[in-house]
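Narrative of activities, Objective 1.

The group set out to show that a structural description can be obtained from nothing but a protein's sequence at a throughput compatible with the screening campaign. Below is one input-output pair from the validation batch, recorded exactly as produced.
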Amino acid sequence: MKPVFGALVLALVATPVAAKPEFSADRVKAHVAFLSDDLLEGRGTGTRGYDIAARYVASQFAANGLKPAGKNGSWFQPVTLSEASLAKGANQVTITTKAGPVTYAHGSDAIVSPSQLATSSVAEGELVFAGFGLDAPKQGFNDYAGLDVRGKIVVVLGGIPKRAPDEVLAHLGTQKGQMAAARGAIGLITISSLEGQKLRPWARSQQTASVPRMTWVAADGTPYVGAPTIKGAAALSPAAAEALFTGARTPLAKILAEADKPGGAPKGFALKASARIEAASATRKVESSEIIGMIPGSDPKLKDEYVVLMGHLDHLGIRPERPGDNIYNGALDNAAGVAILMEVARAFAGDAVAPKRSLLFVVNTAEEKGLLGAESFANDPAVPIGQIVSVVDLDQPLLLYDFTDVIAFGGDHSTMGESIRAAVAKAGVALSPDPMPAETIFVRSDHYTFVKRGVPALLLATGFANGGKEGWEHFLSTDYHQPSDDMKQPIHWNAGARYAEVNYLITREIADAPARPLWYSGDYFGDTFAPGAPKAARQKGQ
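Output recorded for this entry:
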C-alpha cells in the first residue's frame, strides 16, 4: 500500500491545481483614481498626460510579471498619427447652376474636410445624386444603379436608410467614400436627411467644423486614407443643399420626404449643376503608443495562438475654450476598462496553471480619434494576425450599479458567443441580447478593427438588468464625454471587481478551448472579411 500512496502523493504534487483568483475592488478603484486624476489632463492622444498613463500601465504589467510584447521588445509599440487641419487659403465649395456660381465658405454653409495627402486640393466636376450612397447589391442596396459618376462629384444623403437596426447596414454606412471612389468619383458632398437635421442640427456641426482630423500612418510613412482618389469632400447646410438641386427633375424636398419614410430609398440621377471643392491643408505628425503585455500559453501546440484582451487608454484631454471644469477625465470611459484589464492580467499572471493559449493585453491609444491606435496595431500587430484567434474589447464598463447581466456586442456573429455564455454562467451572471440595437455598437469600438481583418471579436459591456437601463440612460445623457465623467460619480467598486472576474472567466474559456473561435457560416462579417476561413454551423436559436 505504501508505494501506491507515495505515488499518489507525488502525482498530486506534480499536477498543480489552479486556485480561483481574487479580484479587488480597491485595486480597481486605485487604478481608476490615478488614470482619471486631473494631473493627467484627460489623457489626450499624443499628450504628456497620456504618456504618463501609458507608463503607469506598463509599470503595473511589469510588477505583475507580464512580459513586454511590443514588436520592438518593449512595453510600448509606437503609433505614428497624422493630424490634418485646414490652413489659410481657399476653403470653400462653389456650386454653379444655370443662374451662375455661388460660393459657400467653410464654417458658414459648408464644412470642408482637410486633406491628409495634399496641401492644396481641388475636386471639380459635374454633380450626380446617389441616394444614400450605398453600393452593396447583395445586401439590397444599389444606389449607383444606372449612374455614371466617373470623374464627377457624388452627392449623398448622410446616415443610413430608416429600417430595423442592422450592423451590416451600419458598416456599409461607413464605406461611402470607398464606394464612390470605386465607381470613379473624384469628390463627395454630403447633405443631411430630415432625421439627420434633428439629431445633429447644422449649428452643432459648425461648432466642430475646424477640429483637426487624424489618421494612422503606415510603416512606409503614408497616412492611411480609405479613398485616396476622392480629391475633395464636404458637407453642406440644408440651405446650401437646395442650390445643388436647382432645376433638378426631383425637388430636394421630395427626396428628403422619401428618405424619411421607413425603408425609403430615393433614386439617384444626374443634377443640373457642377461644383468645385477647394481645401488648403496642413498636417503634422503625432506620436503615441500602444502598451502591450503578454502571458505565454502553457500548451505546446496552442501557445502560438493568442487571445487579445484590449481597452483604450486615451480620452478627450482638455478643451481650453470651455469655461469652468474643462478636463475630460474619462473615469468610466475608459480608465475603468483599463483598470479591469490590469486586474485581469494580474490574476492570470498569478495563476499556478497558465492558460493553454497565450494572452496579449493591448492598451490602445487614439480610440477617441477614430479607433486609430487599434487600426495601427491590427495593421501591424506584435504577432502574426493569423495567430490572433479572438479579441475581447473592454470599453466604458458602466459601474454605477450592481450588474447582473452582460452584453456581448457582436457575440452572435461567431462561436465566441458560445464561449462567453459558458463563462458568464460560471460567474452567476446572465448574458443578454443587445438592448440598444439602434446604436449599432458592434461597429463602433476598437475590436471592430480586427473584425475587418477577419478575426472574431466583440465588445463586452455591463447589461441593462438590475438598474442598468436607468444607469446607462443617465450616463449617456449627462456624463458621457463630459468633464463630469470623473471620480465624483457614485461608482460601485465591487461591481468593478466582479466585472474583472467575468472577464477573467471569459478569457480563460476562450484560451483553454480545444478549438479557436469560428465565424458562423453565412455571417456577413465572416464571409466578407474571412472568406477562406473555416466556418461553424449556426445552431438553432443562435
